[in-house]
Design a protein that fits this description.
Elements lengths: L37 E4 L1 H9 L20 E3 L11 E6 L8 E6 L4 E4 L4 H4 L8 H14 L4 E2 L2 H8 L10 E6 L8 H11 L4 E6 L5 E3 H7 L3 E5 L4 E5 L12 E2 L45 H5 L12
Parallel strand pairs: 7-8
Antiparallel strand pairs: 1-2, 1-5, 2-3, 3-4, 6-7, 8-9, 10-11, 11-12
Helix pairs in contact: 3-5
């Protein structure tokens, strides 16, 4: 999983209130759930799921996960995956193999929950990260944005388990309510250049699509890959903030991952969007052995229901 620092800085789990869930429309699963959203699972349904997953038998801390109120995270839907189920993922701490486990669950057993802001998760980060976190929080305040962690820092803050390591990245979401502030990406790049950890993450568009901030920063007036829960698309940077309906090309790109990540069930690996067979990714000094350029959440999105081979 992402995140970084040392075992020091681990704190107790962050407590968040749970809002009333929005009921799904008939036949639509829960369309209001987007990538990166957090959901809690009914403990009875969770126990039944584990009983049907012998590959997860005896894997700590899974038996008590739901009873502890710990969430799963919504990932991207895989080709051929049941749309009536919500695609979900769960990462294990590095000490437990850093395995990414995928699930597909019916919305009736899920309760949407809040995600902590970076300011709320700050106490779970190692002290060496605090100056960078403070700079990022201040950057968001200047531009009217509220950053949220979604990598190792998120899971360490929520569970109190040691997800952060000396090679972890800091994965952040920057949700937008309107156009991206003009100097934001340059300001973010300046902080990243001086940070003691690698800064990854996505700008989240008002329609829920996510764009890697580094890709956006380097794209100029070109196109960037936008990830939604149920599709990928290429979109022109000048039109990212436009409210005008535009013609969008479905992304026909190979997956950046070529296996090496647990497939959340009885199958392992990922399926690229091209027909090539998966190949093991090279080890990376950043992010604990993930493929270079691949965020921790992209690696998690490779996990899916058993029998499926998924792309991030």
């Amino acid at each position: 999983m992402g995140g970084g620092g040392r075992a020091e800085g681990t704190t107790g789990a962050l407590s968040c209130a749970t809002p009333t869930p929005t009921p799904p429309r008939k036949g639509e699963g829960n369309p209001r759930l987007r990538r990166h959203d957090l959901v809690r699972v009914d403990p009875t349904a969770w126990a039944a799921l584990l009983a049907d997953r012998p590959d997860l038998a005896g894997v700590p801390p899974l038996p008590g996960w739901a009873a502890s109120g710990w969430p799963l995270i919504v990932r991207r839907l895989a080709p051929g995956e049941d749309r009536a189920r919500v695609p979900l993922g769960l990462p294990l701490p590095p000490a437990l193999g850093k395995r990414r486990i995928g699930f597909g669950l019916p919305p009736a057993v899920l309760t949407p929950g809040p995600a902590p802001t970076l300011a709320e998760a700050r106490a779970a980060a190692p002290p060496a990260w605090h100056p960078t976190l403070d700079a990022l929080i201040a950057l968001g305040a200047r531009h009217g944005l509220v950053p949220r962690p979604f990598g190792g820092l998120l899971w360490q803050a929520l569970t109190g388990l040691p997800y952060l390591t000396a090679t972890s990245d800091l994965d952040l979401l920057w949700p937008l309510a309107g156009p991206l502030p003009k100097t934001f990406l340059d300001d973010l790049a300046a902080i990243a250049a001086a940070a003691p950890m690698r800064l990854d993450g996505e700008i989240v568009l008002p329609d829920g699509g996510g764009v890697q901030w580094r890709e956006w920063h380097e794209a100029g007036d070109g196109e960037v890959l936008v990830k939604h829960r149920e599709r990928l698309e290429m979109r022109s940077v000048p039109l990212l903030g436009s409210r005008i309906a535009t013609r969008r090309k479905q992304a026909q790109v190979p997956s950046p991952l070529r296996g090496g990540v647990r497939g959340g069930g009885r199958a392992e690996g990922t399926a690229p969007l091209d027909p090539e067979p998966p190949q093991p990714p090279p080890s990376s000094p950043q992010g604990g052995g993930e493929a270079p350029g691949l965020s921790s959440f992209e690696a998690l999105e490779a996990a899916g229901p058993r029998g499926e081979e998924l792309s991030p």
